[in-house]
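Is flavin-adenine dinucleotide placement plausible here? Inputs below.
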Amino acid sequence: MRRDIRIAVIGAGLGGMTTAGLLQRAGFKVQVFEQAAAFSRIGAGIHLSPNVMKVMRRLGIETTLTDIGLHPDAFVSRKWDTGEVLFELPFHPQNEAHFGAAYINVHRGDLHQVLESALDHGTVAFGHKLRAMEERHGIVHLAFENGAKAEADLVIGADGVNSRVREYLLGTEKPRYSGHVAHRAVFPAALLNGLPIRACTKWWGEGSHILVYYMTQAREEVYVVSSVPHREWTSPQSFLPCDRDAFIAAFDGYHPELQQVVAAAPEVTMWPVFDREPVDCWSRGNVVLLGDACHPLRPYMASGAAMAIEDGAVLARCLADIGHDDPATAFSWYAANRMPRTNKVQRISVANTWFRGPTDPDWLFCYDACAVPLLAPQEAPRELA
Ligand SMILES: Cc1cc2nc3c(=O)[nH]c(=O)nc-3n(C[C@H](O)[C@H](O)[C@H](O)COP(=O)(O)OP(=O)(O)OC[C@H]3O[C@@H](n4cnc5c(N)ncnc54)[C@H](O)[C@@H]3O)c2cc1C
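Reply from A.M.:
I modeled the complex. C-alpha coordinates:
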Protein backbone atom coordinates (compact mmCIF):
# COMPACT_ATOMS: atom_id res chain seq x y z
CA MET A 1 0.00 0.00 0.00
CA ARG A 2 1.22 3.53 -0.74
CA ARG A 3 2.64 5.08 2.41
CA ASP A 4 1.01 8.49 1.92
CA ILE A 5 -2.58 7.28 2.47
CA ARG A 6 -4.38 8.71 5.51
CA ILE A 7 -5.24 6.00 8.07
CA ALA A 8 -7.67 6.72 10.91
CA VAL A 9 -7.83 4.34 13.86
CA ILE A 10 -10.99 4.66 15.96
CA GLY A 11 -10.24 3.79 19.59
CA ALA A 12 -7.01 4.08 21.57
CA GLY A 13 -7.39 0.76 23.40
CA LEU A 14 -4.61 -1.81 23.39
CA GLY A 15 -5.48 -2.97 19.86
CA GLY A 16 -5.74 0.52 18.36
CA MET A 17 -2.53 1.78 19.96
CA THR A 18 -0.54 -1.26 18.86
CA THR A 19 -1.84 -1.03 15.30
CA ALA A 20 -1.06 2.68 15.09
CA GLY A 21 2.49 2.16 16.37
CA LEU A 22 3.24 -0.67 13.95
CA LEU A 23 1.76 1.22 10.98
CA GLN A 24 3.88 4.26 11.84
CA ARG A 25 6.95 2.02 11.97
CA ALA A 26 6.04 0.77 8.49
CA GLY A 27 5.97 4.39 7.26
CA PHE A 28 2.22 5.13 7.24
CA LYS A 29 0.52 8.32 8.43
CA VAL A 30 -1.87 7.46 11.24
CA GLN A 31 -4.26 9.42 13.43
CA VAL A 32 -6.01 7.75 16.37
CA PHE A 33 -9.38 9.12 17.55
CA GLU A 34 -10.33 8.28 21.15
CA GLN A 35 -13.56 9.18 22.92
CA ALA A 36 -12.00 9.53 26.39
CA ALA A 37 -10.63 12.91 27.41
CA ALA A 38 -7.34 11.31 28.57
CA PHE A 39 -5.91 7.97 29.64
CA SER A 40 -6.63 7.10 33.26
CA ARG A 41 -5.01 4.46 35.48
CA ILE A 42 -8.18 2.36 35.96
CA GLY A 43 -7.94 -0.40 38.53
CA ALA A 44 -7.03 -3.46 36.54
CA GLY A 45 -4.11 -5.67 35.70
CA ILE A 46 -3.39 -7.65 32.59
CA HIS A 47 -1.30 -10.68 31.68
CA LEU A 48 1.05 -10.17 28.75
CA SER A 49 1.75 -13.60 27.35
CA PRO A 50 4.81 -14.33 25.19
CA ASN A 51 2.81 -13.94 21.95
CA VAL A 52 2.00 -10.36 23.02
CA MET A 53 5.54 -9.60 24.17
CA LYS A 54 6.86 -10.47 20.71
CA VAL A 55 4.66 -7.72 19.24
CA MET A 56 5.82 -5.32 21.97
CA ARG A 57 9.40 -6.13 20.88
CA ARG A 58 8.64 -4.80 17.37
CA LEU A 59 7.27 -1.61 18.96
CA GLY A 60 10.54 -1.22 20.86
CA ILE A 61 8.91 -1.44 24.31
CA GLU A 62 9.51 -5.05 25.35
CA THR A 63 12.38 -4.18 27.71
CA THR A 64 10.49 -1.32 29.36
CA LEU A 65 7.62 -3.69 30.05
CA THR A 66 9.81 -6.50 31.37
CA ASP A 67 11.45 -3.93 33.66
CA ILE A 68 8.17 -2.72 35.21
CA GLY A 69 6.09 -5.92 35.05
CA LEU A 70 6.02 -8.80 37.45
CA HIS A 71 7.53 -12.05 36.18
CA PRO A 72 5.47 -14.81 37.79
CA ASP A 73 7.41 -18.01 38.46
CA ALA A 74 4.38 -19.96 37.20
CA PHE A 75 0.71 -19.86 36.33
CA VAL A 76 -0.94 -21.97 39.02
CA SER A 77 -4.46 -23.43 38.90
CA ARG A 78 -5.88 -24.46 42.27
CA LYS A 79 -9.12 -26.09 43.34
CA TRP A 80 -11.39 -23.59 45.05
CA ASP A 81 -11.97 -25.41 48.37
CA THR A 82 -9.05 -27.75 49.04
CA GLY A 83 -6.39 -25.64 47.32
CA GLU A 84 -5.17 -28.75 45.44
CA VAL A 85 -2.91 -27.76 42.53
CA LEU A 86 -4.70 -28.77 39.31
CA PHE A 87 -2.05 -27.50 36.89
CA GLU A 88 1.14 -25.47 37.06
CA LEU A 89 2.92 -23.93 34.08
CA PRO A 90 6.40 -22.76 35.12
CA PHE A 91 7.92 -19.64 33.53
CA HIS A 92 11.64 -20.38 33.91
CA PRO A 93 14.26 -19.15 31.41
CA GLN A 94 14.10 -22.36 29.32
CA ASN A 95 10.34 -21.98 28.92
CA GLU A 96 10.72 -18.30 28.03
CA ALA A 97 13.28 -19.27 25.39
CA HIS A 98 10.90 -21.93 24.07
CA PHE A 99 7.96 -19.48 23.86
CA GLY A 100 10.20 -16.76 22.47
CA ALA A 101 9.49 -14.15 25.16
CA ALA A 102 8.56 -13.67 28.82
CA TYR A 103 5.11 -13.91 30.45
CA ILE A 104 4.48 -10.86 32.63
CA ASN A 105 1.74 -9.17 34.64
CA VAL A 106 1.36 -5.39 34.47
CA HIS A 107 -1.07 -2.66 35.45
CA ARG A 108 -3.19 -1.79 32.40
CA GLY A 109 -2.61 1.92 32.99
CA ASP A 110 1.15 1.41 32.97
CA LEU A 111 0.88 -0.61 29.76
CA HIS A 112 -1.10 2.17 28.09
CA GLN A 113 1.47 4.74 29.09
CA VAL A 114 4.31 2.66 27.66
CA LEU A 115 2.35 2.03 24.45
CA GLU A 116 1.73 5.76 24.05
CA SER A 117 5.48 6.36 24.26
CA ALA A 118 5.88 4.12 21.17
CA LEU A 119 3.70 6.42 19.04
CA ASP A 120 4.65 9.65 17.30
CA HIS A 121 3.86 12.67 19.44
CA GLY A 122 0.28 13.91 18.87
CA THR A 123 -0.99 10.68 17.28
CA VAL A 124 -3.99 10.37 19.61
CA ALA A 125 -6.82 12.91 19.35
CA PHE A 126 -8.60 12.58 22.70
CA GLY A 127 -12.20 13.70 23.28
CA HIS A 128 -13.21 12.48 19.79
CA LYS A 129 -16.16 10.11 20.05
CA LEU A 130 -17.11 8.83 16.62
CA ARG A 131 -20.76 9.60 15.88
CA ALA A 132 -21.18 8.80 12.20
CA MET A 133 -19.18 7.70 9.18
CA GLU A 134 -19.75 7.36 5.47
CA GLU A 135 -17.57 6.23 2.58
CA ARG A 136 -17.87 8.21 -0.68
CA HIS A 137 -15.64 7.61 -3.72
CA GLY A 138 -13.01 5.81 -1.68
CA ILE A 139 -12.82 8.45 1.06
CA VAL A 140 -14.26 7.82 4.50
CA HIS A 141 -15.88 10.84 6.14
CA LEU A 142 -15.91 10.81 9.94
CA ALA A 143 -18.08 12.94 12.23
CA PHE A 144 -17.42 13.20 15.97
CA GLU A 145 -19.70 14.13 18.85
CA ASN A 146 -17.58 17.19 19.62
CA GLY A 147 -18.50 18.59 16.20
CA ALA A 148 -15.14 17.81 14.58
CA LYS A 149 -14.97 16.16 11.15
CA ALA A 150 -12.15 14.23 9.47
CA GLU A 151 -11.43 12.34 6.27
CA ALA A 152 -9.40 9.18 5.84
CA ASP A 153 -8.47 6.81 3.04
CA LEU A 154 -8.66 3.82 5.41
CA VAL A 155 -10.48 3.47 8.73
CA ILE A 156 -9.62 0.83 11.33
CA GLY A 157 -12.37 0.23 13.88
CA ALA A 158 -10.62 -0.63 17.15
CA ASP A 159 -13.43 0.79 19.27
CA GLY A 160 -14.18 -2.18 21.48
CA VAL A 161 -17.19 -4.32 22.28
CA ASN A 162 -19.76 -1.56 21.60
CA SER A 163 -18.05 -0.52 18.37
CA ARG A 164 -19.63 2.28 16.36
CA VAL A 165 -17.57 1.21 13.33
CA ARG A 166 -18.98 -2.31 13.60
CA GLU A 167 -22.50 -0.83 13.61
CA TYR A 168 -21.64 1.00 10.38
CA LEU A 169 -20.41 -2.24 8.79
CA LEU A 170 -22.78 -4.84 10.22
CA GLY A 171 -25.78 -2.98 11.62
CA THR A 172 -26.86 -2.52 15.21
CA GLU A 173 -26.80 -5.63 17.38
CA LYS A 174 -26.18 -5.60 21.10
CA PRO A 175 -23.36 -7.80 22.43
CA ARG A 176 -24.38 -10.99 24.25
CA TYR A 177 -24.41 -10.84 28.05
CA SER A 178 -22.75 -14.00 29.38
CA GLY A 179 -24.70 -14.13 32.66
CA HIS A 180 -21.47 -13.44 34.57
CA VAL A 181 -19.77 -10.41 36.03
CA ALA A 182 -16.12 -9.92 36.84
CA HIS A 183 -15.13 -8.34 40.16
CA ARG A 184 -11.98 -6.29 39.94
CA ALA A 185 -9.92 -4.91 42.81
CA VAL A 186 -6.44 -3.39 43.02
CA PHE A 187 -4.94 -2.79 46.45
CA PRO A 188 -1.61 -2.43 48.26
CA ALA A 189 0.03 -5.79 49.03
CA ALA A 190 0.63 -4.48 52.58
CA LEU A 191 -3.08 -5.11 53.25
CA LEU A 192 -2.40 -8.85 53.03
CA ASN A 193 -0.61 -8.57 56.38
CA GLY A 194 2.28 -10.76 55.30
CA LEU A 195 0.16 -13.54 53.74
CA PRO A 196 2.46 -15.11 51.12
CA ILE A 197 0.69 -15.53 47.76
CA ARG A 198 1.95 -17.10 44.55
CA ALA A 199 2.47 -14.53 41.81
CA CYS A 200 -0.29 -15.70 39.50
CA THR A 201 -2.96 -18.10 40.77
CA LYS A 202 -6.39 -18.98 39.40
CA TRP A 203 -8.79 -20.53 41.92
CA TRP A 204 -11.32 -22.71 40.14
CA GLY A 205 -14.75 -22.92 41.79
CA GLU A 206 -17.99 -24.45 40.59
CA GLY A 207 -19.49 -21.90 38.20
CA SER A 208 -17.16 -19.17 39.47
CA HIS A 209 -13.43 -18.51 39.60
CA ILE A 210 -11.00 -15.87 40.76
CA LEU A 211 -7.46 -14.91 39.78
CA VAL A 212 -4.98 -13.29 42.12
CA TYR A 213 -1.70 -11.75 41.05
CA TYR A 214 0.88 -9.07 41.72
CA MET A 215 1.09 -6.48 38.96
CA THR A 216 4.42 -4.84 39.50
CA GLN A 217 8.03 -5.96 39.80
CA ALA A 218 8.14 -4.62 43.37
CA ARG A 219 5.07 -6.72 44.35
CA GLU A 220 3.51 -3.73 46.08
CA GLU A 221 0.15 -3.97 44.26
CA VAL A 222 -2.22 -6.94 44.17
CA TYR A 223 -4.95 -7.48 41.57
CA VAL A 224 -7.92 -9.80 41.88
CA VAL A 225 -10.34 -10.49 39.04
CA SER A 226 -13.21 -12.95 39.23
CA SER A 227 -16.10 -14.38 37.30
CA VAL A 228 -19.34 -15.09 39.13
CA PRO A 229 -22.89 -15.70 37.90
CA HIS A 230 -25.10 -12.58 37.88
CA ARG A 231 -28.60 -12.79 36.42
CA GLU A 232 -28.77 -9.64 34.34
CA TRP A 233 -26.91 -6.44 33.54
CA THR A 234 -29.12 -3.47 32.77
CA SER A 235 -26.77 -0.57 33.45
CA PRO A 236 -25.43 1.44 30.48
CA GLN A 237 -22.16 1.86 32.46
CA SER A 238 -19.21 -0.39 31.63
CA PHE A 239 -18.74 -1.09 35.35
CA LEU A 240 -20.34 -0.34 38.71
CA PRO A 241 -19.02 -0.19 42.26
CA CYS A 242 -19.64 -3.46 44.11
CA ASP A 243 -20.69 -3.87 47.71
CA ARG A 244 -17.67 -5.28 49.56
CA ASP A 245 -19.71 -7.70 51.70
CA ALA A 246 -21.41 -9.12 48.60
CA PHE A 247 -17.98 -9.60 47.02
CA ILE A 248 -16.67 -11.44 50.08
CA ALA A 249 -19.85 -13.56 50.27
CA ALA A 250 -19.39 -14.66 46.63
CA PHE A 251 -16.29 -16.60 47.74
CA ASP A 252 -17.77 -18.17 50.82
CA GLY A 253 -16.43 -21.72 51.21
CA TYR A 254 -13.32 -21.02 49.11
CA HIS A 255 -9.90 -21.96 50.57
CA PRO A 256 -8.97 -19.82 53.64
CA GLU A 257 -5.95 -18.37 51.79
CA LEU A 258 -8.17 -17.01 49.01
CA GLN A 259 -10.73 -15.74 51.51
CA GLN A 260 -7.99 -13.78 53.26
CA VAL A 261 -7.01 -12.12 49.94
CA VAL A 262 -10.62 -11.27 49.11
CA ALA A 263 -11.22 -9.79 52.56
CA ALA A 264 -8.21 -7.49 52.14
CA ALA A 265 -9.69 -5.62 49.14
CA PRO A 266 -10.94 -2.23 50.31
CA GLU A 267 -12.83 -1.32 47.12
CA VAL A 268 -14.29 -3.51 44.42
CA THR A 269 -15.86 -2.87 41.03
CA MET A 270 -18.10 -5.15 38.99
CA TRP A 271 -17.86 -5.52 35.19
CA PRO A 272 -20.35 -7.32 32.95
CA VAL A 273 -18.86 -10.02 30.73
CA PHE A 274 -20.07 -9.70 27.15
CA ASP A 275 -19.14 -11.47 23.96
CA ARG A 276 -20.58 -12.00 20.47
CA GLU A 277 -20.98 -14.88 18.06
CA PRO A 278 -18.12 -14.95 15.52
CA VAL A 279 -18.89 -13.20 12.21
CA ASP A 280 -17.06 -13.73 8.94
CA CYS A 281 -17.31 -10.14 7.70
CA TRP A 282 -14.59 -7.94 9.21
CA SER A 283 -14.39 -5.26 6.50
CA ARG A 284 -16.19 -3.45 3.70
CA GLY A 285 -14.72 -0.99 1.26
CA ASN A 286 -12.00 0.95 3.04
CA VAL A 287 -13.16 0.12 6.57
CA VAL A 288 -11.93 -2.79 8.68
CA LEU A 289 -12.40 -4.01 12.28
CA LEU A 290 -10.04 -5.48 14.85
CA GLY A 291 -10.03 -6.71 18.44
CA ASP A 292 -13.18 -6.59 20.52
CA ALA A 293 -14.91 -4.61 17.76
CA CYS A 294 -15.04 -7.76 15.63
CA HIS A 295 -14.56 -10.67 18.08
CA PRO A 296 -15.19 -9.74 21.73
CA LEU A 297 -14.16 -12.64 23.94
CA ARG A 298 -14.97 -13.71 27.47
CA PRO A 299 -11.81 -12.95 29.45
CA TYR A 300 -11.29 -16.58 30.60
CA MET A 301 -8.10 -17.19 28.63
CA ALA A 302 -6.79 -13.70 29.44
CA SER A 303 -6.43 -13.31 25.69
CA GLY A 304 -8.89 -10.62 24.51
CA ALA A 305 -6.27 -7.91 24.43
CA ALA A 306 -3.73 -10.40 23.13
CA MET A 307 -5.97 -11.13 20.13
CA ALA A 308 -6.54 -7.39 19.50
CA ILE A 309 -2.77 -6.81 19.60
CA GLU A 310 -2.04 -9.75 17.28
CA ASP A 311 -4.80 -8.54 14.91
CA GLY A 312 -3.07 -5.16 14.76
CA ALA A 313 0.28 -6.75 13.95
CA VAL A 314 -1.11 -8.92 11.14
CA LEU A 315 -3.24 -6.07 9.74
CA ALA A 316 -0.22 -3.76 9.67
CA ARG A 317 1.77 -6.42 7.76
CA CYS A 318 -1.07 -6.96 5.26
CA LEU A 319 -1.40 -3.22 4.62
CA ALA A 320 2.36 -2.83 4.25
CA ASP A 321 3.09 -5.88 2.11
CA ILE A 322 -0.06 -7.35 0.53
CA GLY A 323 -2.50 -6.15 -2.08
CA HIS A 324 -0.49 -3.29 -3.55
CA ASP A 325 -3.01 -0.43 -3.54
CA ASP A 326 -6.10 -2.57 -3.06
CA PRO A 327 -7.37 -2.54 0.55
CA ALA A 328 -9.87 -5.34 -0.19
CA THR A 329 -7.02 -7.76 -0.91
CA ALA A 330 -5.07 -6.70 2.20
CA PHE A 331 -8.21 -7.02 4.33
CA SER A 332 -9.08 -10.46 2.94
CA TRP A 333 -5.58 -11.76 3.79
CA TYR A 334 -5.82 -10.21 7.24
CA ALA A 335 -9.20 -11.82 8.04
CA ALA A 336 -8.21 -15.20 6.57
CA ASN A 337 -5.06 -15.31 8.69
CA ARG A 338 -6.69 -14.14 11.91
CA MET A 339 -10.16 -15.73 12.01
CA PRO A 340 -9.09 -19.35 12.59
CA ARG A 341 -7.06 -18.28 15.61
CA THR A 342 -9.60 -15.88 17.13
CA ASN A 343 -12.39 -18.44 16.61
CA LYS A 344 -10.36 -21.04 18.50
CA VAL A 345 -9.61 -18.63 21.35
CA GLN A 346 -13.28 -17.72 21.52
CA ARG A 347 -14.33 -21.38 21.70
CA ILE A 348 -11.93 -22.13 24.57
CA SER A 349 -12.82 -18.89 26.37
CA VAL A 350 -16.52 -19.78 26.34
CA ALA A 351 -15.73 -23.29 27.61
CA ASN A 352 -13.44 -21.77 30.29
CA THR A 353 -11.08 -24.74 30.26
CA TRP A 354 -7.73 -23.01 29.61
CA PHE A 355 -5.18 -24.14 32.24
CA ARG A 356 -7.87 -25.91 34.27
CA GLY A 357 -5.89 -29.13 33.88
CA PRO A 358 -2.82 -30.15 31.87
CA THR A 359 -2.70 -27.76 28.88
CA ASP A 360 -0.23 -27.40 26.02
CA PRO A 361 0.11 -23.63 25.49
CA ASP A 362 2.54 -23.77 22.54
CA TRP A 363 0.01 -22.93 19.80
CA LEU A 364 -0.94 -19.75 21.70
CA PHE A 365 2.37 -18.61 23.18
CA CYS A 366 4.85 -19.59 20.41
CA TYR A 367 2.91 -17.65 17.74
CA ASP A 368 4.65 -14.53 16.47
CA ALA A 369 2.14 -12.24 14.71
CA CYS A 370 4.98 -10.19 13.24
CA ALA A 371 6.74 -13.16 11.62
CA VAL A 372 4.26 -16.01 11.09
CA PRO A 373 4.07 -16.78 7.35
CA LEU A 374 0.89 -15.23 5.94
CA LEU A 375 -1.35 -17.58 3.98
CA ALA A 376 -3.38 -16.59 0.93
CA PRO A 377 -7.14 -16.61 1.73
CA GLN A 378 -7.71 -19.78 -0.32
CA GLU A 379 -4.94 -21.58 1.64
CA ALA A 380 -5.96 -20.55 5.17
CA PRO A 381 -8.02 -22.98 7.30
CA ARG A 382 -11.37 -21.68 8.55
CA GLU A 383 -10.66 -22.85 12.08
CA LEU A 384 -7.66 -24.23 13.96
CA ALA A 385 -8.01 -27.75 15.33
C1 LIG B 1 -12.53 -8.47 33.61
C2 LIG B 1 -11.68 -8.54 32.36
C3 LIG B 1 -10.34 -8.98 32.45
C4 LIG B 1 -9.55 -9.09 31.29
N1 LIG B 1 -8.26 -9.54 31.39
C5 LIG B 1 -7.50 -9.68 30.25
C6 LIG B 1 -6.14 -10.16 30.30
O1 LIG B 1 -5.57 -10.45 31.36
N2 LIG B 1 -5.46 -10.31 29.12
C7 LIG B 1 -6.03 -10.00 27.91
O2 LIG B 1 -5.38 -10.16 26.86
N3 LIG B 1 -7.31 -9.53 27.85
C8 LIG B 1 -8.05 -9.36 28.98
N4 LIG B 1 -9.33 -8.89 28.90
C9 LIG B 1 -9.91 -8.57 27.58
C10 LIG B 1 -9.44 -7.23 27.11
O3 LIG B 1 -9.66 -6.24 28.08
C11 LIG B 1 -10.14 -6.79 25.82
O4 LIG B 1 -10.32 -7.91 24.98
C12 LIG B 1 -9.26 -5.77 25.13
O5 LIG B 1 -9.18 -4.62 25.92
C13 LIG B 1 -9.79 -5.42 23.75
O6 LIG B 1 -8.96 -4.43 23.19
P1 LIG B 1 -9.50 -3.46 22.06
O7 LIG B 1 -8.38 -2.54 21.76
O8 LIG B 1 -10.12 -4.27 20.97
O9 LIG B 1 -10.73 -2.68 22.73
P2 LIG B 1 -10.76 -1.76 24.02
O10 LIG B 1 -9.62 -2.04 24.93
O11 LIG B 1 -12.15 -1.87 24.57
O12 LIG B 1 -10.53 -0.31 23.45
C14 LIG B 1 -11.51 0.36 22.70
C15 LIG B 1 -11.22 1.86 22.76
O13 LIG B 1 -12.11 2.53 21.87
C16 LIG B 1 -12.64 3.67 22.53
N5 LIG B 1 -13.95 3.94 21.88
C17 LIG B 1 -15.09 3.22 21.99
N6 LIG B 1 -16.06 3.77 21.24
C18 LIG B 1 -15.52 4.85 20.63
C19 LIG B 1 -16.04 5.83 19.71
N7 LIG B 1 -17.31 5.79 19.27
N8 LIG B 1 -15.20 6.81 19.28
C20 LIG B 1 -13.90 6.86 19.71
N9 LIG B 1 -13.37 5.97 20.59
C21 LIG B 1 -14.17 4.98 21.04
C22 LIG B 1 -12.74 3.26 23.98
O14 LIG B 1 -12.78 4.39 24.84
C23 LIG B 1 -11.44 2.45 24.14
O15 LIG B 1 -10.35 3.27 24.48
C24 LIG B 1 -10.12 -8.73 30.04
C25 LIG B 1 -11.45 -8.26 29.97
C26 LIG B 1 -12.21 -8.15 31.11
C27 LIG B 1 -13.66 -7.64 31.01
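Short version: The chain has a mean pLDDT of 95.
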